[in-house]
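Weekly structure sync, notes
Attendees: PL (lead), two postdocs, one rotation student
Agenda item 3: pending single-chain targets
PL asked that the sequence for the first pending target be pasted directly into the notes so everyone works from the same version. It is reproduced below exactly as submitted, 423 residues in total.
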Amino acid sequence: MNLKVRLTVMNFLEYAVWGAYLTSMGSYLVKIGLENHIGWFYSVQGFMSLFMPALVGIIADRWLQGQKVLSLCHTLAGLFMLAASFYGFEAESSVSFATLFTLYALSVAFFMPTIALANSVAYSALEGAGLDAVKDFPPIRVFGTVGFICSMWVVDLGGMQENAGQFAFSGALSLLLGAYALTLPACPVSRASERKSLTEALGLRAFALFKQKRMALFFVFSMLLGICLQITNGFASPFIFSFGALPEYADTFGVQHANILISISQISETCCILLIPFFLSRFGIKRVMFIAILAWVLRFAFFAIGNPGPGVWLFVLSMLVYGVAFDFFNISGSLFVNQETDMRIRSSAQGLFMMMTNGFGATVGTLSAQAVINHFVYDLPSTATGQEIVDGWNTCWLIFAGYALVVAILFSIFFKYKHVVKE
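Predicted structure, written out during the meeting:
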């Protein structure tokens, strides 16, 4: 089989594993009475991202070929996710938070490193075949998002949005990729005799960048914006499902197929990647990231004023601006780090960027969002009407939009960067 096709299959499965539960898990947790703990299930991804990718990366660099580490991690992640699914079906409405969360967290601990590992395996294979990774990898990576979307649709149409079937589907895909990874080209292992300090091995030297005012501000704002990253992944689905309590919305497409509606976000993400080169060259990193922050404001605001009925077009707009909010921030930020840091610590700097956004930022964001939503939605008295619950959700989205707006204003004031337009 053609190498690019083989790597495309790997990327498709890599993100299909994640897409099986990432946007629908919140609805399942609401269904089994764990709505007050949704934030913990999403924040553990950020927590694991702080150290697991670095530790597993050291193993892949020094002792075990990358494709074998990828296989091992997916096999373990799949087994723990299947165990979570089995427990969920067995316990039904009597699910214990501690048990389900432990099984899920163990699966996430082994899954999170596979995102970076899959990239490393692809880069190694392409370069080993004499191909240009910069040119040939992006079209391969796009199929990862396609896989994510396909999983969302399967979970939706398969009736798994509100049950543990989504975990079983994810676990099965993970085991499939675990086996498939062993067929991929071997990655080189560095057995160099020189010893590195733990600080160097974990990429902590990049923290020296905080001595530079502009880079320090960039990383701080990256963390502040990272707070927005997982909020809609965790809470968009329960929010849309809450309209089901209102007769005028109960049978709408959005309520019946929330995952398909949310998948427009991933479709938008795929398309917006193509806009980044133009916007960066024309407007520069500051304006592009400012546009991204404003897109987060609109993402949340459209949720607050929309509905699955006549106002569904506002939900669709929220999904469309997600591509700008996510890509313009993550990819443009990554390119900025690549341009502004010394080559010797460039990889570590990228790791620091991910740590600040998907680690610290996303963890703080989901737990903070959970506290806000608990107050305005889940802690309402049992006598609360469906409309009162929806109104509570709308208040939450407006608070999140207000937060993003404050970050946008502060960013425009304090982050200084003069862009020179290239002719």
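Discussion points:
- The chain has a mean pLDDT of 86.
- The radius of gyration is 21 Å.
Action: rotation student to compare against the earlier draft before next sync.
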